[in-house]
Fold CsbD family protein.
Amino acid sequence: MSESDKAENKFDEFKGKAKEGVGKATGNEQWQAEGKAEQTKSKLKQAGEKVKDALTPDDRPGRD
């Protein structure tokens, strides 16, 4: 995973936390849910990139 991808995913996670926090503070359940969803999406991207990084080029699917 490139450093810019890592930074983007972390920023997206931060945005989700902020959105969830604003939603909690204002009682806006939709923003709370959207914030949690953004955090989950970011964490899934990060996990997928970690798996991809862990595979050697010869182990990656589709590489013969």
In short: The chain has a mean pLDDT of 88. The two ends are 22 Å apart (CA to CA). DSSP finds two helices and no strands in the chain. The helical segments are 3-26, 29-54.
